[in-house]
Design brief:
Layout (H helix, E strand, L loop, with lengths): L8 H8 L9 H4 L4 H6 L1 H10 L6 H13 L3 H7 L4 H7 L9
Length: about 100
């Protein structure tokens, strides 16, 4: 599934941020077109670095909260009385790297 997102690093970032552990990437990283890899090298470096590494407690809490909120997550998060930066984090807004 992740291999299908290679042409869109932003989509791949959202997908990977849904995982509690970044899965092995060596097989599909070989398929990245050179131009895309060069343009988004920082992102792909962060993916390699996080492969099979434990995610931060902050990220694991985001995963748990998103799982708990279920299908109506966007509407549910929008109703929360929380800072906009936290709201964007919970909504998986892209920042160009995996942490």
């Amino acid at each position: 599934m992740l291999k299908l997102c290679l042409l869109s690093p932003a989509t791949l970032e959202v997908m990977l941020n849904c995982y509690a552990v970044v899965p092995s990437c060596e097989e599909w990283m070989q398929s990245i077109p050179l131009e895309i890899h060069e343009t988004h090298q920082g992102f792909f470096d962060s993916v390699r670095q996080m492969t099979s590494q434990p995610r931060s407690l902050q990220h694991l809490c985001r995963c748990a909260l998103r799982r708990h909120l279920g299908k109506g997550i966007d509407a549910a998060i929008s109703r929360l009385d929380i800072p906009s930066s936290l709201m964007e984090y919970l909504l998986l807004r892209n920042d160009g790297e995996i942490r």
